[in-house]
């Protein structure tokens, strides 16, 4: 068995193992809004980015502002149904119940990338120019994971959603966000309320995914 020098390492890995996806959420919080904000702020500030470009942008929506996001998303889908882009039956039986389940949560963290802020560094390091956009997406994903982990450590359940680009325009308008903030993902959270969650998870054998040499 591996022995760690620092007990925090075991604690961290235990948190990693227990982070799961929860869809059944209620609009309650085990911690203060300030504590939630601190988790998000630390995850924005201290997660690394390539060349320290700090391209991630984040918006924390709580309670009514969170509901506003999912109402806005429902409206966008109703427009798609009316225009014939989404079948009404599919919307009513599948999409709407999902969106209402998100709305029943306590908050949503919106994660964005400011790709435009990379213009100067792309010119300066032309040889890496095509790498900066994917690096920025990787960096914002790290923040998503950290917020997800920390919220669940505090007793929340969360799920990660991607309703971009469908809701981009409405989101920017609703919270008056800079045009250069490109929406990447939405992390929905609340107190878990479905005893059957988390669902059982299958793992591919680690041997097919990991190798070690020189041990
Ligand atoms: C990059 C990424 C994108 C994901 N996108 C979605 C999504 O759009 N909708 C969703 O319900 N879950 C999404 N998930 C959640 C995964 O389906 C989920 O994490 C995976 O099935 C493992 O389950 P677990 O989170 O319970 O460990 C995403 C997860 C990752 C890492």
Provide an overview of this structure.
The protein has 215 residues and is of the alpha+beta class. The protein has one domain: 3-Layer(aba) Sandwich (NADH Oxidase), CATH 3.40.109.10. Helix content is 44%, strand content 15%. It contains seven helices and five strands. Strands 1, 2, 3, 4 and 5 form a five-stranded antiparallel β-sheet that branches. Helix 2 runs antiparallel to helix 6 and helix 3 runs antiparallel to helix 4. The longest helix is centred in the middle third of the chain and has 22 residues. It is globular and about 60 Å long. The mean pLDDT is 97. The structure holds flavin mononucleotide.
Topology:
Layout: H1 7-18, E1 25-26, H2 33-45, E2 56-62, H3 64-82, H4 88-103, E3 107-113, H5 119-124, H6 132-153, E4 157-161, H7 168-174, E5 182-192
Antiparallel strand pairs: 1-5, 2-3, 3-5, 4-5
Helix pairs in contact: 2-6, 3-4
This protein binds flavin mononucleotide.
């Amino acid at each position: 068995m591996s022995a760690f020098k620092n007990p925090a390492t075991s604690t961290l890995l235990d948190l990693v193992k227990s982070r799961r996806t929860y869809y059944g959420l209620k609009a309650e919080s085990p911690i203060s809004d300030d504590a939630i904000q601190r988790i998000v702020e630390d995850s924005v500030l201290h997660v690394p980015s390539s060349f320290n470009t700090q391209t991630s942008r984040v918006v924390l929506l709580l309670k009514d502002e969170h509901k506003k996001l999912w109402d806005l998303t429902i409206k966008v889908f109703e427009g798609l149904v009316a225009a014939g882009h989404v079948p009404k039956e599919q919307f009513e039986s599948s999409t709407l119940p999902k969106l209402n389940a998100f709305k029943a949560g306590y908050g949503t963290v919106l994660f964005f990338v400011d790709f435009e802020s990379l213009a100067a560094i792309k010119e300066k390091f032309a040889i890496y120019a095509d790498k900066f956009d994917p690096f920025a997406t990787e960096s914002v994903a790290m923040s998503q994971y950290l917020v997800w982990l920390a919220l669940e450590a505090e007793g929340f359940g969360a799920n990660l959603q991607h309703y971009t680009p469908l809701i981009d325009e409405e989101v920017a308008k609703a919270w008056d966000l800079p045009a250069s903030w490109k929406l990447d993902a939405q992390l929905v959270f609340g107190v878990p309320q479905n005893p059957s969650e988390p669902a059982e998870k299958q793992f591919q054998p680690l041997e097919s995914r990991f190798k070690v040499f020189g041990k």
